[in-house]
Amino acid sequence: MKHISPAGMEPTRAEHAERTATYLRAGEERARELANRGPVRFGTDGSLHPDILKAYWKHGFYVFQGVVGEAELDEFRRDADMMIERAPMRPGADLDRHGRPALGRDFAREPYTLVKPLSDLWGGTAKLNGRHPHQMVQPQPDADAPEYVVFLMYGMCQTMPAALRVYGHPHLLAVAEAINGADFVPYNDAIFVKQAGVGGSVAWHQDGVTHWESPDWDEGIHGFNFQLQLYPTTPANCLWVVPGTHKQGRIDIRRRVVENGGDEKLPDAVPLVCEPGDVTIVNRQMLHCSFANSSPDKRISITMGFHRRRSVLGQRGKLNMGADQIYDEQRVFDRSAVIQVAIDARRQRYPEEAPFRYRPFAGQEDRFRFNDETYERVLRDYNTKDLAI
Ligand SMILES: O=C(O)CCC(=O)C(=O)O
């Protein structure tokens, strides 16, 4: 499905920003009416507050405010900037834009996805199990835009110490436990980089691709993603969701856009506007997207997904993982070990904070302390073991 601009008639970056402004404002108003944001809170029994769970299951998303403080964010921004600076100049290049060897040339999985400025990499293609059927508006970049921009970065627990420590954050893991059960397991992590005036779009999609026809299907079967925001997010650069769509099964996205006159600006969607340090949680069955970032503000979103163990065990690889990969007990254990090492990395840095107790590794903590040996055994190329469903 193509968007409504005829070929060769794409708006310029500035026109795009101007044409979306009213929609962005209206979406922000709609978002304000939903009672689903606040700090992480716990009930009297120490588990996630039931009001938060209720709001999450009702709307399919929640905004946790102020999860990560300014000092930790600063370290994270430095790590993220280092990784952006060390990206290859163009896809397949060995050198970064400073002429140094790009990061990760020896990694088992390429740690970067680069895109043309303001483009839509997946929309209207069969990529990623064809889950993005509609192509988004791809505005014409400004004349001084670079040829390629960093769009996604992978493998953060291997490359960014601040990211590993956030992966072991006790409040986030407590939320994961409350939603996916004490034996919860990881999905993947990815950093969305939407640079000012050039960041690409992510076409409307639902993340899950495995369980739509499952007899056990329910609104939580495909897990969720957290996004930690390193900078303030705005309606122009942030993720948009259609509330409640996690309950609706597989959605005919193409039809929704056609019924909206071919316009990608879906009428009931809301933006996830955040402050730095806020963490959103979004059900992977939600209909969501982000528009080309024609705005002057960058967004860097640290995205970490978690599943119910029973949703992944015995499944075959999907999305970027090959179908020849089977998620057996060993695979699930090996990928989950990253959580335990992350918990220990955090404990070493923040000894005053009570560490999360990850039940699947109870009694095995000493084998999964963060050190040089576990860096090699657990963290190196850990994302070849992601659990994508
Ligand atoms: O943050 C974004 O722009 C896109 C995120 C997304 O689509 C996802 O996490 O599935």
Overall description:
This protein has 389 residues and is an alpha+beta fold. It has one domain: q2cbj1_9rhob like domain (Jelly Rolls, Sandwich). It is 29% helix and 15% strand. The strands form two sheets. An eight-stranded mixed sheet has the order 1-2-10-7-12-5-4-3. The radius of gyration is 20 Å and the shape is globular. The mean pLDDT is 96. The protein binds 2-oxoglutaric acid. 2-oxoglutaric acid binds next to β11 and β12.
Overall residue-averaged pLDDT value? 96
Q: What's the number of structural domains?
A: 1
* CATH topology description: Jelly Rolls
Helix content: 25-40%
Distance between the termini: 25 Å
Considering the protein shown, what is the CATH homologous superfamily?
Answer: q2cbj1_9rhob like domain
* Rg measurement, Å: 20 Å
Bound molecules: 2-oxoglutaric acid
Main pleated-sheet profile: 8 strands, mixed
Oligomer: single chain
Q: Strand portion, in percent?
A: 15-25%
Beta-strand segment tally: 12
Counted by DSSP, the helix tally is: 11
Series of secondary-structure elements, N-terminal to C-terminal: HEHEHEHEHHHEEEEHEEEEHHH
> SS-based structural class?
alpha+beta
Q: Report the top-level CATH class.
A: Mainly Beta
Which of globular, elongated, flat, extended, rod-shaped describes the shape? Answer: globular
Architecture in CATH?
A: Sandwich
Q: Low-confidence spans: pLDDT under 50, at least 5 residues?
A: none
Read across the widest sheet, the strand sequence of neighbours is 1-2-10-7-12-5-4-3
